[in-house]
Design brief:
The chain is mainly β and about 110 residues long. The protein is about 10% helix and about 55% strand. It starts with a strand and ends with a helix.
């Protein structure tokens, strides 16, 4: 099953298997100075990045370049097993935790 939520006008998608959310995909619009090296596919740059948070383990960051600048466009991660019972009720909290942590080094 796929859950779609808008959090602060950003699309957050949860994909569940066997009734438990397992995948977290979130839109962001965090401007960056430089796009790190990574796998390029159709104008997007996919960068492997491990970041442990209480509920989500971030696995990939997706960067894009526009006429205005370069951005972190998406975050892809796994929902930790001990957090699946909180989904999708806590999706806003999960999203804000991820964004706040990423803003420390982006």
């Amino acid at each position: 099953m796929i859950y779609r939520h808008l959090v602060d006008n950003h699309l957050v998608i949860l994909i569940s298997q066997q009734g438990k959310p397992t995948l977290f995909i979130a839109d962001t619009e965090m401007q960056v100075k430089n796009i790190p090296n990574g796998k390029q596919i159709e104008g997007l740059v996919y960068v492997d990045h491990e970041l442990e948070l209480p509920y989500v383990k971030v696995k990939k960051l997706v960067f894009c370049k526009t006429r205005i600048g370069s951005y972190l466009c998406n975050v892809i991660g796994e929902i930790k097993e001990n957090s699946t019972y909180k989904m999708p009720d806590k999706i806003e909290e999960f999203y804000h935790d991820v964004i706040n942590e990423l803003s420390k080094f982006i």
